[in-house]
Write a structure and sequence with these properties.
This protein is an alpha/beta fold. It has eleven helices and eight strands. Helix content is about 55%, strand content about 10%. β7, α10 and β8 form a beta-alpha-beta unit.
């Protein structure tokens, strides 16, 4: 498992801040600081996990949904489902997002709705969640499908909204393409398209996110990698 260097610097800075503020005295009282800065009673390492806002990012067909559901159960965190899948048929009556993206005005409206619903779903869970996709993914699909037709100010409004919102995640799990891409009637089954989306996601992650981790392997291995990372962050905080 690899993580972005910003994550390591973040952990070191947090540990130093805790020391300055008298972490030893708080530890005796059973209190530690959550990554967002608020003081929280330290009941257990598992309780710490339930306070985290974790997003899963990656191209289609990489196993994000399967991993999100497994982590939701393992860490006892509520699941934020993929909004595009829910929105495509429910509000627009289409089978796939591509049908919407290929219509300029309707496609832009759709991508804004996806972003709005993603943020609204996360706002309903201030105590923590596992999200199947992130606002970063929304920015990627806006760039891929709509940035050429949209005005520059509209592009930047979308990107700045995502940039500001991405700071709310405690960290993001990036899932690279490594399993066979299987068509399911919703996702785009083209391998080259998957590689393009993956490339754009890594660009946005390195631009907008302080800390993310990359997971690889089968489902059980991916879950262990996330738990190992969380355990390391927790130990740095306390």
């Amino acid at each position: 498992m690899a993580w972005f260097d910003g994550g390591r610097k973040f952990c070191y800075a947090r540990r130093f801040l805790l020391w300055l503020m008298g972490a030893r005295r708080r530890e005796e009282k059973g209190i530690y600081f959550h990554p967002k800065g608020q003081a929280v009673r330290k009941e257990s390492e598992e309780r710490y996990y339930t306070l985290m806002k974790i997003g899963i990012s990656g191209a289609q067909g990489t196993g994000k949904t399967t991993l999100a559901r497994a982590l939701s159960e393992e860490l006892d965190l509520p699941l934020v489902e993929e909004q595009a899948r829910l929105l495509t048929a429910r509000e627009y009556g289409y089978k796939t997002p591509r049908e919407l993206h290929e219509q300029t005005e309707l496609g832009q409206q759709f991508q804004w709705r996806c972003l709005e619903l993603q943020m609204a779903a996360e706002d309903k869970l201030p105590g923590g969640f596992i999200s199947d996709r992130t606002v970063i993914d929304n920015a990627v699909y806006w760039m891929k499908w709509h940035s050429r037709e949209a005005k520059s100010e509209d592009n930047m409004r979308y990107y700045r909204t995502v940039e500001n919102r991405a700071r709310d995640y405690d960290f993001i799990i990036y899932v690279p393409p490594e399993i066979s891409l299987v068509a399911n009637g919703f996702r785009n089954p083209d391998r080259a398209y998957q590689e393009e989306i993956d490339f754009l996601i890594t660009l946005f992650l390195t631009s907008f996110v302080q800390a993310y981790i990359t997971v690889a392997g089968d489902l059980a291995t991916r879950v262990r990698q996330v738990e190992r990372y969380l355990g390391g962050v927790y130990r740095n905080l306390v």
